[in-house]
Amino acid sequence: ALLLLAAERFTGAALAALDVEHLEPLAGGGLRVRTSAPFAKVPVLRELARRPGAPGCAVEAVELWRRRGQRRFGALFTTISRADRPGDRLSADMVRLLLRRARAAAG
């Protein structure tokens, strides 16, 4: 979900700050995401379309991440313990590191 949202041009800082409460389901299966850029006074609303069955569908990936992690509120992206329990919110630096590693692995 993190990588697919980054592919939708969300920044590392925006992804790190993303809470479950910032996600709003849309009619037709899409997703409205409210993000705040650092030092921005007005949140940015982005609407993502669902692409059923597409392997790169960010909406389906976020929904699966929320269900699997039983996330109902708070940080969307957190550390995960060895016991598969959510931990602390990922920092913007950690998100950027994960994205950089994924890009390097992809070649």
Structural class: alpha+beta
Along the chain, the helix and strand elements come as HHEEEHEEH
Residues in helices, as a percent range: 25-40%
Sheet of most strands: 3 strands, antiparallel
Overall geometry comes to: globular
What is the count of DSSP helices, taking H or I runs of 4+ residues? 4
- Residue runs with pLDDT of under 50 for 5 or more positions: none
Q: How many runs of DSSP E, i.e. beta strands?
A: 5
CA radius of gyration: 14 Å
Strand arrangement, largest sheet? Answer: 1-2-3
Average pLDDT number: 90
Our measurement of the CA-to-CA distance between the termini, rounded to an integer number of angstroms, reads 20 Å
Portion in beta strands: 15-25%
Question: Summarize this, please?
Answer:
By secondary structure, the protein is an alpha+beta fold. The protein has four helices and five strands; from the N terminus they run H-H-E-E-E-H-E-E-H.
Characterise the protein shown here.
The protein has 107 residues and is α+β, with helices and mostly antiparallel strands. The protein has helices spanning 2-7, 12-16, 58-69, 92-106, and strands at residues 23-25, 31-35, 44-48, 78-80, 86-89. The strands form two sheets. It has a three-stranded antiparallel beta sheet with strand order 1-2-3, with no helix packed on it. The chain has a two-stranded antiparallel ribbon with strand order 4-5. A hairpin with a 5-residue loop joins strand 4 (78-80) and strand 5. The radius of gyration is 14 Å and the shape is globular. The mean pLDDT is 90.
